[in-house]
Amino acid sequence: MKNRKAKRLFLQRPVRVVELVISNHKIAVLHPFGQVAFAAKRKPTASQNRRKKGYAVR
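and the corresponding structure tokens:
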């Protein structure tokens, strides 16, 4: 399990968090009062890119 996935699982609590997309490959998780919980680089796989663009083949 990658570190960012472990952190997301850790944050799945009743506490309300907001995911903020910083750029195409960066994401940050904010607590309710604006504090950054963590930021991670998210690189989508090739299949995720195809699905997003609408020409997924399967």
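(Above: one complete record from the training split.) The mean pLDDT is 72.
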